[in-house]
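User: What would this chain look like folded?
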Amino acid sequence: MEKYQDHINWYYATTLVRHFMQQCRARENPEAIFREAFEVFFRQGNVEALSGMRVAAKAGHMEAAYLVGLLVFFEST
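Assistant: Here's the prediction, encoded as structure tokens.
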């Protein structure tokens, strides 16, 4: 999934694209989990999405690990 550039229209796309994204998340694809958590956390302001970023980070997603680290750092200051 990493080779597909993230685009805001993916979240409001056709049924086939939404189904593809759901299947990626269902199979615990770290990139799909990160993208969804990123969207929910930053666009909707839902702090609970941080748990999704942690899951992606533990699965080896580098951007998720970086963001989780930054957010935990700023939370503790």
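The two ends are 35 Å apart (CA to CA). If you want, I can go into more detail on any region.
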